[in-house]
Amino acid sequence: MAEIEGQVDDGFGAVADAFRANFDERDELGAAFALYVDGDKKVDLWGGTANAQTGTPWTEDTLQLVFSTTKGIAATAIAMLVQSGTLRYDDPVSKHWPEFAAAGKDDITVEQVMSHQAGLIAVDAPIDFDQIMAVTPVIESLQEQAPMWEPGTAHGYHAITYGWLAGEIVARVDGRRIGQFVQDEIAGPLGIDLWIGLPESEEERVSRLETTPLPTDDPALLEHLGKLYARGANGYRALALDGRLSTAKGNHFNTRAVHATEMPGANGITTARSLAKFYAATAGTVDGVRLLDTDTMNAARTQRVSGDDLTLLTASRFGAGFWLHNEGAPMIQDGSYGHPGAGGSLGFANPELGIGYGYVMNRMGNNLTADPRCLALNDAVQASL
Hints:
This protein is an alpha+beta fold. The chain is built from 14 helices and 13 strands. The strands form three sheets. Strands 1, 2, 3, 4, 10, 11, 12 and 13 form an eight-stranded antiparallel β-sheet that branches. The protein has a three-stranded antiparallel β-sheet with strand order 5-7-6. Strands 8-9 form a two-stranded antiparallel sheet. Strand 2 and strand 3 form a beta hairpin.
């Protein structure tokens, strides 16, 4: 039986029960969960195994790569630049990044990039893994290539490229790379463990990701995944960069190279405690820090697109970089904004409920969103509130 440690305030016992049940009933390996309510930490739990190969236990300080949950951090960096007045969502990207105007992209706006409407879901140039890790070849390819569809007419999840596009906008507007911006403007002021580009000094704290075999008793899921990851399909192109990034055996996301690079759409490394505090500070004041004022927060969570997603082959709903509450990615109720990550991680805020929520794990589920472990935690949080 997994050992569970941490803090649970009175009234939130149902959350601790759900967290425990994830280990007992839902094949959890190692995980952590945290919840802030009205600026105060109410739940901070961790448990299980950080490395199944060595048996290393998950501790209070274990770090986790959270895949697309990183996108909410990138969205907040962009929102902070909007708040400062140095950027507008309706700016053409080429206003700040002139080279981006090539191949008919001169009118693509920051809003369209942040809401997955730009038609740049993959990297067309034949660059290899090492070049992807170097980032600059990716940026050069994205600024040179043409969109896959007319920007603004449809949306398709930019699973990995979203982060590089947002990151380059941050760099062009602010002068700092997004990893440094996050340290200076978000992680540092909040005193949290959060990196896009992990220092080598922190590497030994990172939990090892484990994949889960595909379920043979769920034909609908198998059919959907088959279509999604078919070679040449938008999902394969976007989620795996045409096979150049993999979460299968030999998982690239367990490597030092991926941890060290800046991949702001997919390689954020953090803790549940830090993720929950971060989201709480986008919607309110935590320990004297507030990242987004009310107007900026509301602009960032305003729906920009919804409905059929050309990449995911299901419905999705986005604000300015944030995934919004919907059936595919439940975040308790409308008004919530945040982002799920591949395998199950989730971070979000709901200002009306006053919550900042963070869940991280190392056993990757096969569902794209709506992980059963998160659903159980969501229900417990709602019942406790």
